[in-house]
Design a protein that fits this description.
With about 160 residues, the chain is mostly helical. Helices cover about 60% and strands about 10% of the residues. It has 5 helices and 3 strands; from the N terminus they run H-H-H-E-H-E-E-H. The chain has a 3-stranded antiparallel beta sheet. The two termini are about 25 Å apart. Its main location: membrane.
Length: about 160
C-alpha cells in the first residue's frame, strides 16, 4: 500500500486543496483530484534525496507552542520598534553556527526564523554549518544567537536526530 500511497496525509491534503480550488464537488473533479493526489506524492517521493524522520512528538508540540508564543511577542516588539524613533532601529546580519545537520531540521529552523516577525533567514553556508539571519533590531548578537540555538535549534536536533 505504501508504494501506491507513499504519503497518505499528503494525498488527502492534495485532494482537499484540489476540490477547494476547483470549487466543485462533482464525480469528475473528485476522480481527477484523486488521480492528482496519488500521482503527485508518488512523483515527489522519487525526487526526495532523504526522507524526514521525525521523533519526539512531545518535543514537537512544545516547539510549536514556543514558536506561536514567540510570533505573538515578536509582533508586539516589531510594532514598538516601527512606531518608535527611527534612530532606535539597529538592523543587522548575523551568521549563526549550526549544530543541527539534518537538512529537514535546517529547513525547519530557517522557516521558523522567517515566520517570526523581525527576523529573516537570508542564506545558508555551502557546508550547511552556518545560517545567515537578518534582524530588524540587533541589540546583542550573541544573545540573539543563544536564543535561537536554545529555543529552536535544540528541540529541532531532538526531533530530527
Amino acid at each position: 500500500m505504501s508504494r501506491i500511497l507513499p504519503s497518505p496525509f499528503l494525498s488527502l491534503t492534495v485532494l482537499a486543496v484540489w476540490l477547494l480550488l476547483v470549487g466543485e464537488l462533482s464525480a469528475g473533479q473528485l476522480l481527477l483530484g484523486a488521480l492528482v493526489a496519488i500521482v503527485l506524492p508518488w512523483v515527489a517521493q522519487r525526487l526526495r534525496q532523504t526522507r524526514a524522520r521525525m521523533r519526539s512528538p512531545l518535543t514537537m508540540l512544545k516547539l510549536a507552542g514556543v514558536v506561536l508564543w514567540d510570533i505573538v511577542v515578536s509582533n508586539i516588539q516589531v510594532a514598538r520598534v516601527i512606531l518608535g524613533p527611527e534612530s532606535a532601529i539597529r538592523p543587522g546580519f548575523v551568521w549563526i553556527p549550526l549544530d543541527i545537520r539534518n537538512p529537514h531540521g535546517i529547513a525547519t529552523l530557517a522557516g521558523i526564523i522567517t515566520m517570526t516577525p523581525g527576523t529573516v533567514s537570508a542564506d545558508l553556508s555551502p557546508d550547511r554549518s552556518h545560517l545567515l539571519v537578518h534582524f530588524l533590531n540587533l541589540d546583542d548578537p550573541q544573545a540573539q544567537i543563544d536564543q535561537i540555538k536554545q529555543r529552536y535549534e535544540a528541540p529541532l536536533r531532538e526531533i530530527f536526530r
